[in-house]
Every structure is written in structure tokens, then in C-alpha cells.
Amino acid sequence: MIHWLAPYLFSEDVCRLLGYISVRAAGAAVTAFLLAIVFGPRVIRWLANLGIGERIDGTGSQQLEKLHAHKRGTPTMGGLFIVGAIVASGALWLRFDGPNRFSLPGLVLIAGFAAIGFWDDWVKLHNPKKRGISKREKQGALTILALLVAVWLVGPAGLQDGQPQLYVPFVKDFAVPLEAFYAVPFLLVAVMVLTGSANAVNLTDGLDGLATGCVATAAIAYAVITYAVGRVDWAQYLLVPHVAGVGEMTVLMAALLGGALGFLWFNAAPALVFMGDVGSLGLGGALGYAALVSRTELVLLVVGGVFVVEALSVILQVASFRLRGKRIFRCAPLHHHFQFGGMPETRVVVRTWVVSALLALCSLALFKVR
Description:
By secondary structure, the chain is an all-alpha fold. Helices cover 68% and strands 2% of the residues. It has a two-stranded antiparallel ribbon with strand order 1-2.
């Protein structure tokens, strides 16, 4: 939006500066951060006045209930202001003209996934007998929205135009022909990436600041990745497929970073607010979207390695208990396993941040280790 308004508001030199992705990315990060800082306290008070507080039921685990008993009643659904800050900042600093065809679907996806999370949180908090909407309802809603966005990408957004390859890390001069991924197969891949990323971040959001900090490091990595993939010269040098227009996602990732840091201001231990599904699904969807449009879905497994491991720990725990009647971990997701082992919550969070930062650095190194 600001790019459209700039000729009427600023000098020619300022308009030229606003044409640079790096300048608008910095503006998006600062804007999202400030919006979260300014509106965060107001939203937290509003949620507290409505009585929208966290329920600590431990899913049957008395030890988990005891560990988190002090968090009972803390306002949740704080994702309302983090997603609001990201979408508002993106709408202000993103370009929607010409080749910048991925901006609008990205904002729609983030807002849509957040709306589904809001639905789940609302049912959970206003019906003590339910833990939110059913898994079938949640996954079904996420799948439908992801499918619609994927159709938008291969249709009006033209993601398939001139993008013949899917980047494969570590393998020099080789990429998967994308013709096999379009139509129905591509839609399946898109749904898996978008909903999988959203659910993985949702599962990770169990300790003060844990998911938020990991999202921030992943956003930094994908800001660099989308910028590189969006530039012809960088893509050729790094031997990755160039995707025209995807560089604009650097601005969206910067907004994601700014919003995450703004939320962390209130979410760091001891948390004043929790993001709820309305936040975690929106943030996870944003990361999955950046990976999808930049054709680096496989790199997302490294960038979001923490989220992948957290999700796998739940899958393995459930599978092991159903098949063998035994648990692999003390408690799942994995961060609770360490808590149950006696590790303080803050130590679990900070160490996970460190691992997430290292994985982000490793993901960037993948572009040269070929």
C-alpha cells in the first residue's frame, strides 16, 4: 500500500528507496513490532476483562497440571494482536502490483488460519467440556483453506510459470521436475506443507516464549531464502531455482519477525499472555507459505527442525502407546519430556532457541553445500 501512496506523500528519492525490498522489509519488521507493543497491553487487558484465561487440564497428567498450575487464568488468544500486527504491517509494506503476485494469497492464508485457530480457542474456552473443535473439524477447515490458496497459486498467481524445478538440498545440478507436482499432486504437497507447518508450530506452543522465539529465528532464515530465490543473480550463483516475485516474501517474513518479537515482549517467562491457536496456526501457516512459494519445501524441514521434532514426538508417542501400550517419552510434545525430567522451563526454552538458531544457520548453508 505504501508503494502506491508514496508518489503522493514523499519526494522522488524516498519513492526510489521504497522500491527496494530491503527498505520495505525493515519498515515491515519495525511496524509489526511497534503495533504489537502498542496494542498488546490493550488486547491483554481486554482478554482479561472477558475472562479468557488459559485452562490447565494436563490432558490427564497430574504432573503436567502441577508444573503449569501457576499459569491457570493467564489471558490467552493473544495471537489476535500478533497476527493483526503482521497482517497490518504486510498490507502496508508489501507490493501487490506486477510480478508481486504472492503477497495477497499470503495475507489471506495467515488471516484464514488465524480465524480457524480463533474458532478452536473460542470453543475451548467457552465450553469446559470440550478441548476445542474436533480434530476432524480443525484439520478439515485448514485443508480447505490451504487447498483454496494452492489453487490460487497455480491459477491467478501463476506459480507454475517458468518454475520448472524443485530445489533439493545437497544434490548438485539436480532438482525434481515440477511438472509432476502440478495439478492434483501439487495441491496435495501444498496442503501437507501448509497444514503440517501450522500444526507443528501449534504443538510447539506449550512453554513461555518457546514457539515465538523459534518462529522468529525461522522467519530470519526465510527472509534470506526468499530474497535469494527471488533474485536471478543470487539464484544462479547459489544453484537454486529462481522464482520471479517471491522476493516480496522477504517483506512478509520481516513482518513475521517483528510481530513475533513484539509478542515475545509479553510472552517471555513469566508470560503475561499466551498466543493460543489463533496465533500458532497463523504463524505456522506463514512459514509454510514462504517455503511453498519459494519452492524450498525440503529446506523447511531444517529451518523448522524444532517444530518437526516436536510434531514427530507426538506422533511417535501416540503410535507407540497404541501399538505397544508403552510410551517413548515421559510426556509429549518433547519439551514436556524435558520438563518431566526436572529441567527448568526457562532452560528448556532457551536451549530450544539455541537449537532453532543453529538450524536456521544450517539451512542457509545448504545453498552452498552442493
